């Protein structure tokens, strides 16, 4: 089993957890809502409770209109599904042999010290601390570090 990105989700602020939970729930509702025409169409085709209301209580002219609605729903579902399949196929062909994730290069302490313009011993000490606050200038250059 893969580890979570956040090892301790209980440390995430409650407002963030609630906000993202509501955001996720909203999109699940939208996803279910988008499937409703297909579910309704399937139920209608199978005759569940729609048969009596649609066929026995309607006139032939209304049935022709329902037939047009059925064709419209079917064509919309086919168009949307086909566009998703076409997009998925395009992305597969585009990225099938591309490995975009690479193992990051290990940066040595000496390289870090050179970049920060520090002594190797100082950078080793900073590297071994559990907590520190690093200060940088407006160009991102290292200025100083406060060790707690």
Determine the structural class based on helices, strands and strand pairing. mainly alpha
Strand order across the biggest sheet? Answer: 1-2
Mean model confidence by pLDDT: 81
Question: Largest sheet, described in full?
Answer: 2 strands, antiparallel
The helix count comes to 5
Got a strand count? 2
For the CA atoms, what is the radius of gyration?
Answer: 30 Å
Cα distance spanning the termini? 36 Å
Strand/helix succession? HHHHHEE
Poorly predicted tracts of residues: none
Integer tally of domains: 2
Quick description:
With 148 residues, the chain is mainly alpha-helical. It is 62% helix and 7% strand. The two termini are 36 Å apart.
Walk me through what this model shows.
The structure is a single chain. This protein has two domains: 10-95, no CATH class; 109-147, no CATH class. The protein has helices at 14-46, 50-56, 60-95, 109-116, 120-127, and strands at residues 132-136, 142-147. The longest helix is centred in the middle third of the chain and has 36 residues, at 60-95. It contains five helices and two strands, in the order H-H-H-H-H-E-E. 62% of the residues lie in helices and 7% in strands. By secondary structure, the protein is mainly α. The model has no long low-confidence stretch (mean pLDDT 81). The two termini are 36 Å apart. Helix 4 (109-116) packs across helix 5 (120-127). The chain is elongated and about 90 Å long.
